[in-house]
Amino acid sequence: MLTFDLYWSFRSPYSYFVARRLRTLEHDFEVRCNVRPIFPIAVRTPEFFESRDPLWFTYFQIDCRREAAFLGLPFRWARPDPVFRLPDGSYPKEQPHIHRLTYLGVAAAERGRGLPFLDEVSTLIWGGAVDDWHLGDHLRQAASRAGLDYDELSAAVDGDPERYRAIVEESQVAQRGGGHYGVPLMVFDGEPFFGQGRFDQLRWRLELKGLKRRAPA
Predict the structure, then answer these.
(1) Where are the domains of the chain?
(2) Are strands 185-188 and 31-37 parallel, antiparallel or unpaired?
(3) What is the pTM of this model?
(4) In this structure, which CATH number among 3.40.30.120, 3.40.50.150, 3.40.30.10, 3.40.50.300 belongs to the domain 2-208?
């Protein structure tokens, strides 16, 4: 079976934009996505944003809204942001959400439900239907929609967070080895496809390598 790696962040709207298409691709075709959640660049290298031209963020905001509308996806900036930012614009080392979210993504992937979990949780965070996605049973319901037991997932992550951190850090090294530092990054047969806009090229490349539809259940 064809396989490709996916490096993906819960803080990235563009990761959200591609999750549903990747989920459908894996469901409909004989291909396996090796889901490798990583920390966002704001956590890995927060100084990245210090050197950005102000137009970078202005364009980013415009492009996110436009791309969501083009894809027919609901979109609103997350409330709260998965990465906590101080009033002075800096990102503290201790983060209340993103580390655990990423570990949950790793645990979901280990249980063979990585893409469904990424899709359901990123829709919860970025889809605009829910405020305070981190409170109540929102994450539990998203996990259930992905075919997972949230309590079991949480127990695994909370019981050994250092193991999950090591897996994430290993994936971050592998990501750079795959040819890029950003997300979403799909790597197939040694070839990097950076950005959700490269989905069609990824599928084209898979088709050239013999991608086949799954037989009807």
Answers:
(1) 2-208
(2) unpaired
(3) 0.95
(4) 3.40.30.10
pLDDT digits (tens, 9 = 90+) for 72-82: 999 999 999 99
Task: Tell me: pLDDT of 48 over 70.
Answer: no
- How far, in Å, CA of 32 to CA of 26, rounded? 6
Buried b (16+ CB within 10 A) or exposed e, 50-75: eeeeeeeeeeeeeebeebbeeeebeb
User: Where do we find the tokens 């790597």?
Assistant: 187
Q: Which residues are paired to 29 by β-bridges?
A: 213
**Among the residues of the chain, which ranges form H helices?**
13-28, 41-44, 54-71, 98-110, 114-126, 138-145, 150-159, 161-178, 199-208
Give the chain's radius of gyration (CA, Å). 17
